[in-house]
């Protein structure tokens, strides 16, 4: 249902205004994802600073567990900040999450090492990682909701897909910053203390983003509800009190978000871990491979978001998950064969030929393509699924629970499975199983939301 007041009609908002909203939202969200994923990009090096060095595998898995703790915290952030977003507004809530994220990331740069303060070091690291997770639990729902409530109904998939690129762009920026710092400082200095610089840079990035975001206006849909006195008094209780809304949250989680979460994180983060830690390809080559795949693959998020405006969200999302479930094993096995055929072991790491590097990059582009299909349309889908006055809360809880518990923990679970089974490929069955399960549930229960009006 649309309103008769053109002031609040999302279908009549000028394109220039819409792009201002997208840019302001995206810049901050890229920085938050950079903050969140710089930890994962440096997990192998961080493990040597904050955990005992006598067992490198255990130290690395402990670091991945701390990385996963941030994901586990995300649904709680969704509960806290989702309620704030539905009560005080989208804009002010993701200003707060930006400050929390940036502050905690900046602080990681200054934690003393395990050799200096013992177990207090990993304890502080874990605490700051949890704060990061809480902040991200509020950020994504706010940015996606904010942009979607401005976007016209017929092009919501296209415009919200720009927000969907921010996670991958944040990951990409983290890799580029790491490679530049490593190149300038040298490998030894970077591993000793230089890894702290990418975390410290977060302070500057957050200040820039804050000044961009503080001049944004509130979402017109939220402003209309506030003006009419129709805001929810208790969004969390209202979201769970309604049987139909509870059902929608469960369907969204198990029929879309769980699969999307494992496909996104496997196609980018676990691919990075698999190439570097399991196949033992050198650190620089690994990151160049991942970075090149992200450069090629990131525009595909917008391509598939736009395509969902024409053929539907459901087909594209479930299609990406199905392709991942079918092709993950042969693609990861192919990567292993390439390293064996095109790699030379030097000082404990495989150095690839140019042909081998290109082949691995091609495979990673395919993995990012599956992720783009699953992730590109999902913001539009979730916004269209829930009513405005409890949208932030209803969207954030299932999104961050599924992405945090199932998706974000995928690198940790897959690496752990590989370690306990002594198999390079056992870990890949975790995302395959969850992606396949999501496709089955989604085919049966997931509604199509393409083109729905969200003015309610």
Structure keywords:
456 residues, mainly alpha, Growth Hormone, Chain: A, 20 helices
Task: Lay out the secondary structure.
Blueprint: H1 15-41, H2 43-50, H3 56-87, H4 90-108, H5 114-117, H6 120-150, H7 156-185, H8 187-194, H9 196-213, H10 220-227, H11 235-241, H12 243-278, H13 283-297, H14 299-311, H15 313-342, E1 343-346, E2 349-352, H16 354-375, H17 378-385, H18 391-407, H19 410-421, H20 429-445
Antiparallel strand pairs: 1-2
Helix pairs in contact: 1-4, 1-6, 1-7, 1-9, 2-3, 3-4, 3-6, 3-18, 3-19, 4-6, 4-9, 6-7, 6-18, 7-8, 7-13, 7-14, 7-17, 12-13, 12-15, 12-16, 12-18, 12-19, 12-20, 13-16, 14-15, 14-16, 15-16, 15-20
Description:
Its main location: membrane. The chain crosses the membrane at residues 21-46, 58-81, 93-111, 117-138, 159-180, 192-212, 248-266, 286-304, 316-335, 360-385, 397-419, 425-446. This is Alpha-ketoglutarate permease. It is found in: Cell membrane. The protein has 456 residues and is an all-alpha fold. The chain contains 20 helices and two strands. A two-stranded antiparallel sheet has the order 1-2. It is globular and about 65 Å long. Mean pLDDT is 86; it is low at 1-6.
């Amino acid at each position: 249902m649309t309103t008769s007041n053109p002031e609040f009609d999302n279908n009549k908002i000028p394109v220039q205004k819409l792009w201002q909203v997208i840019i302001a939202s995206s810049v901050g969200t890229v920085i938050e994802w950079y903050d969140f994923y710089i930890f994962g990009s440096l997990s192998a090096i961080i493990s040597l600073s904050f955990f005992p060095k006598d067992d490198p595998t255990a130290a690395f898995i402990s670091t991945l567990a701390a990385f996963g703790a941030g994901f586990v915290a995300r649904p709680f952030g969704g509960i806290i900040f989702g309620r704030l977003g539905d009560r005080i507004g989208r804009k002010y809530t993701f200003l707060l999450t930006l400050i929390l994220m940036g502050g905690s990331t900046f602080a990681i740069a200054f934690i003393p090492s395990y050799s200096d303060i013992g177990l207090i070091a990993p304890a502080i690291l874990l605490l700051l990682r949890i704060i990061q997770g809480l902040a991200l639990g509020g950020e994504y729902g706010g940015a996606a909701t904010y942009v979607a409530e401005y976007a016209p109904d017929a092009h919501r998939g296209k415009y919200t897909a720009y927000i969907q690129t921010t996670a991958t762009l944040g990951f990409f920026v983290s890799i580029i910053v790491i490679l530049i710092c490593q190149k300038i400082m040298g490998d030894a200095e970077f591993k000793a203390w230089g890894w702290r610089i990418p975390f410290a840079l977060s302070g500057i990035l957050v200040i820039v983003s804050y000044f961009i975001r503080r001049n944004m206006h509130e979402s017109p849909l939220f402003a209309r509800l506030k003006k009419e006195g129709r805001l929810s008094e208790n969004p969390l209780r209202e979201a769970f009190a309604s049987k139909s809304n509870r059902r929608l949250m469960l369907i969204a989680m198990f029929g879309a978000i769980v699969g999307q979460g494992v496909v996104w994180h496997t196609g980018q983060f676990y691919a990075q871990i698999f190439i570097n830690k399991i196949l033992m390809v050198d650190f620089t080559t690994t990151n160049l491979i991942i970075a090149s795949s992200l450069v090629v693959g990131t525009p595909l998020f917008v391509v598939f978001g736009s395509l969902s405006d024409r053929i539907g969200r459901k087909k594209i999302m479930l299609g990406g998950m199905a392709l991942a479930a079918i092709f993950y094993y042969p693609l990861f096995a192919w990567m292993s064969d390439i390293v064996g055929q095109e790699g030379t072991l030097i000082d404990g790491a495989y150095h690839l030929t140019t042909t081998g590097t290109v082949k691995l990059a091609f495979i990673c582009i395919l993995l990012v393509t599956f992720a783009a299909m699953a992730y590109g349309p999902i913001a539009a889908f979730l916004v269209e699924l829930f009513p405005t006055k409890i949208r932030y809360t209803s969207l954030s809880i299932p999104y961050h629970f599924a992405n945090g518990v199932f998706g974000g923990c995928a690198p940790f679970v897959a690496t752990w499975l590989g370690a306990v089974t002594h198999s390079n490929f056992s870990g890949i069955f975790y995302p395959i199983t969850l992606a396949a399960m999501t496709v089955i549930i989604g085919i049966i229960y997931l509604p199509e939301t393409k083109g729905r009006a969200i003015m309610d």
